[in-house]
Amino acid sequence: MGTLDRAAAADTLAAQSQRGRLPLNFRLFPGALAAAALLASALPAQAQSTYEPVFTPESVRATVEFLADDLLEGRDTGSRGHEIAARYVASRFAALGLKPGGDNGSWYQRITFQQTSRADTPGTLTVAGPRGASQSWKHGTDVIIGISANERHLDIAARLVFVGYGIANARLGMDDYAGLNVKGKIVVVLRGVPKGLSSEVAAYVNATKAEAAQAHGAIGIVTIGTLQSMNERPWSSTVGAAGRPGFNWVDEAGMAFDRTPAIRTTASLNEPVVDAMFADAPKTVAAVRAMADKPGSRPRGFALKTKVRIQSDSVASRLSSPNVVAILPGSDPALKAEYVVLSAHLDHLGISPPRLDDTAETDRINNGALDNAAGIATMLEVARAAASAPVPPRRSIVFLATTAEERGLLGADYYARHPTVPARAIVGNVDLDMPLLLYRFTDVTAFGADHSSLGPIVAKAVAPMNIALSPDPFPQEGVFTRSDHYMFVRQGVPAVMLATGFANGGDKQWAHFFSDVYHRPGDDLTQPIDWLSGARFAEANYRIMRAMADADAPPRWYAGDFFGDIFAARAVKVVRP
């Protein structure tokens, strides 16, 4: 620029602005920034809307390298490493000139969590047979007893009722409780769902079995395997989770939040316990499982002739961890009262406990480079581009870095239930979770795109980049219900989770990542991360955000959609194209 005089520089800047090519990191001689502002204000709105920011691999890399550094020790919820990461994100928000969106004018929405662990004495489950004989099993053997968040000493005895899959959903025409009295009893349910349901609906009904049991008056749930579930995950794998603590956010009354407080106890059972419970039952467990294995078949329930007693003790501790929230006010006088939420989880798994075969050189830090430092880096790049635009998005944008995603989507659940902006004003959410930046992606998957107009919005926004919108590549996994965006869906907000797709070699990269890297110390900076793809993913999300924020109408649920009808029954719907 040193060879240009001021007039030539202004002419060049104006030409770049008209072509929408003003880079975010341009540098001019003293006074040029003021000239740029004057030029931008003089441009018509249409010209300003063609602004195309520059996204660089270096910017994405810098963020990921900081967040995935060993010094942050895996950013576990409530840890010092996560607190450092939260302050880093807040400082980036502040540098961009965004408004604090947390509590009391801060960047942070501070959440109290309760961690509930088992006491020294293992829990026991005792089955009393129809002839009076009883058998007992300790937790971690052939039973896994769930932890009660709000009862330190649990001692429950009740009769048992088998309720098939334990599904009660009028929309699906399913009621496994029909004709059964389970009030004050413990229900026995088959793991999973009937064959033939779509993956996302299946994930929903599977996750709401406790709600169905509570609605019918049950006080507990014990789960038994089907032929399919036992084949997919043998008991030896299931029992490996026996030592995990429970994790809940704490409400204003000081109670650990529990979606189904009337369900006082839960347990998973292996074969010896199942056989004892089905002693002298109207149908054998083998017959029940054979029927359940047929596509579309749902075994009918019946009362069992046995009783169960479940005892367990627990201890609880509390900790604090923040969501980090920033707001970019919208530019449209009317639409700025509506909010689009762009979210990504900041936490990861921390340091794995030592194993017997570990050495001094064993890496136990779960750095979470792609899960989900890469998602946070993407969000920060979108925030940078949006904050630097000559004209901000028409709607206001909430940039949300959540905590405790790895603990059960808890930070997002808390924010969706306690938003720092008016709840009814949140019109859409895009969540960024684990973009796999290991190859030059040519497509993206928006998990949940089939449920609302967000699907066409995403497809149209990324089309100029020659990026395709692909369907869910592994529908059997029910990803739509397994990341932060689903907490917004539960509050009636159209939402998607965006990830790099399976095209151009992505299928092999995803398969390798899930089998060898996911939730392991290997998700670190030694991976061959393609930083150019990181910049490209950030640009795609910027385009999606602008499309959502600048459209005349907000995202809408499709008429007749399963999730839209359940969670947003009164919302305005649109016809599915």
CA radius of gyration: 26 Å
CATH fold description of the largest domain:
Aminopeptidase
Q: What count of domains describes the coordinates?
A: 3
Question: CATH homologous superfamily of the largest domain?
Answer: Zn peptidases
Q: Please summarize the sheet with the most strands.
A: 17 strands, mixed
Percent of residues in helical segments?
25-40%
Number of strands: 23
Low-confidence stretches: 1-48
Oligomer: single chain
Shape, principal axes of CA atoms: globular
What integer is the average pLDDT?
A: 90
The CATH architecture term of the largest domain is: 3-Layer(aba) Sandwich
Helical element count? 18
Measured by DSSP, the beta-strand proportion falls in 15-25%
What structural class do the secondary elements suggest?
A: alpha/beta
Distance between the termini: 50 Å
CATH class categorisation of the largest domain: Alpha Beta
Task: Describe the protein's architecture and organization.
The chain is of the alpha/beta class and 577 residues long. The protein folds into three domains: 17-49, no CATH class; 57-115 and 318-353 and 362-569, 3-Layer(aba) Sandwich (Aminopeptidase); 116-317, 3-Layer(bba) Sandwich (Glucose Oxidase, domain 1), CATH 3.50.30. The protein has 18 helices and 23 strands. The strands form four sheets. The protein has a 17-stranded mixed sheet that branches. The protein has a two-stranded antiparallel sheet with strand order 7-8. α4 packs across α12 and α12 (369-388) packs across α17. The two termini are 50 Å apart. Mean pLDDT is 90; it is low at 1-48.
